[in-house]
Specification:
Blueprint (H helix, E strand, L loop, with lengths): L1 H17 L5 E2 L2 H17 L14 H21 L10 H30 L11 H8 L4 H32 L1 H15 L8 H6 L1 H13 L5 E5 L4 E3 L2 E3 L4 E5 H4 L42 H18 E4 L8 E4 L1 E4 L5 E5 H6 L1
Antiparallel strand pairs: 1-9, 2-5, 3-4, 6-9, 7-8
Helix pairs in contact: 1-2, 1-11, 2-6, 3-4, 4-6, 6-9, 6-11, 7-9
The structure holds protoporphyrin IX containing FE.
Cofactor: heme
Keywords: Heme, Iron, Metal-binding, Monooxygenase, Oxidoreductase
Family: Belongs to the cytochrome P450 family.
């Protein structure tokens, strides 16, 4: 958690230095992609890739941009007429190009780290620092399988956590009273110049967690989850034979007013005395059952730390009159880069 907290603190510095003269970060998506890539790799590889450095280039940034490209193409391939099944359409070829780059770059990052860990003799049970050394010590997977697993987890994490945190910040801009309540909690629990957010502090950040849950409800980045039926079922008079591909629309389930009164409003309070699980299938933002999101706890920890660090230093405002246009690029993101104003709380208080 310390390493992830360090990433959150460095992200705050990147936000501060990315502001224009009005205090606006013009492309918040880019900053948050860097944050999620850097954060997840503290857990996967126990390393810092340097993506929070503006000048960072090479494999880490190429992995991020290729993952974004893969997700964008995937949306079109999934929902347009599937001509790519007959011909290698231009969209298919672009998709292949992004996939190849994402695979090559991320595998190089993992291989390099594996080499370092081997040289340091860090692959023993006492020194397991991260998922990769854990998997190596367990000896159940080949090096290639481990590398591919790491790559898949990077792909699963970059767009999801970043867009979720972005929508949370946007909702806080639109709901200043919630933002103030959140800030009050953060100030009370972690104070002003807190070096380290401890697990005990994390447990007490109840409203912070509620804000993330409520934002995931209104903007579930993964809009649907799907399964192939392994047996025939009847649903509301419809017969669905085994082998049918069914999709649950997560966004519309989250708008069910019998479960979520006043469903269009941002009301973090509704989560204070319930657990995700209490909502049953009305809340599928992390999926369900054996195939539910494997990165959930990790993503939650990243987002709580990120949100606490950002709101502790800045008051956030949405600077435009036109609202952002949510679009699906496999995950729910914005049609244009999100811009957001970050004002230093210390200066606002002094004024
Ligand atoms: C806010 C962040 C995230 C959200 C909302 C999210 C949501 C989801 C959802 C809805 C599924 C489908 C589950 C199902 O069908 O039952 C899923 C699957 C998955 N997620 Fe996430 N996810 C997030 C972050 C992450 C992160 C950080 C990682 C990796 C570290 C990750 C890795 C995966 C993987 C590997 C799967 C496939 C699991 C399987 O098929 O067994 N996700 N996620």
């Amino acid at each position: 958690m310390d390493a992830m907290d360090d990433v959150a603190k460095d992200t705050v510095k990147l936000i501060a230095s990315s502001r224009d003269s009005e205090g606006i970060v013009q492309d918040l998506n880019d900053v948050l992609f860097r944050w999620s890539m850097e954060s997840v790799n503290t857990f996967l590889l126990d390393t810092r890739l340097g993506t929070l450095d503006r000048d960072c280039d090479g494999d880490a940034m190429d992995t991020v941009t290729s993952i974004v490209g893969v997700f964008r193409c995937m949306q079109k391939l999934m929902f347009d007429i599937p001509l790519y099944k007959k011909f290698r359409t231009p969209m298919w070829r672009t998709f292949e190009k992004y996939c190849e780059k994402a695979v090559q770059c991320s595998l190089r990052i993992v291989d390099e780290r594996l080499k370092e860990l081997n040289e340091q003799g860090a692959i023993d049970t006492d020194k397991r620092q991260c998922l990769v050394s854990y998997l190596l010590a367990a000896q159940g997977l080949s090096n290639f399988e481990i590398s591919v697993t790491m790559m898949e987890l990077m792909v699963g994490s970059v767009e999801t956590a970043s867009n979720s945190l972005m929508w949370t910040l946007y909702l806080l801009c639109k709901n200043p009273m919630c933002q103030q309540k959140l800030f009050n909690e953060i100030k009370e629990v972690i104070g002003n110049d807190c070096d380290e957010i401890t697990p005990d502090m994390m447990n007490r950040l109840k409203y912070t967690k509620a804000c993330i849950k409520e934002s995931l409800r209104l903007y579930p980045v993964t809009f649907a989850t799907s399964r192939l039926l392994n047996e025939d079922i009847d649903v509301l008079g419809y017969h669905l034979p085994a082998g049918t591909h069914v999709q649950a629309n997560i966004k519309s389930l989250c708008q069910d007013e019998t479960v979520f009164p006043d469903p269009k409003s941002f009301v973090p309070e509704r989560w204070l005395n319930v657990r995700n699980e209490d909502m049953g299938v009305a809340n599928l933002v992390w999926g369900h059952g054996a195939r539910m999101c494997i990165g959930r706890r990790l993503a939650e920890q990243e987002m709580y730390l990120g949100l606490a660090r950002i709101i502790s230093r800045f008051q956030v405002f949405y600077p435009n009159t036109a609202e952002p246009d949510p679009v699906l690029h496999t995950v729910m993101t914005t049609a244009k880069p999100m811009s957001m104003k970050f004002m230093e709380r210390s200066q606002l208080e002094a004024a």
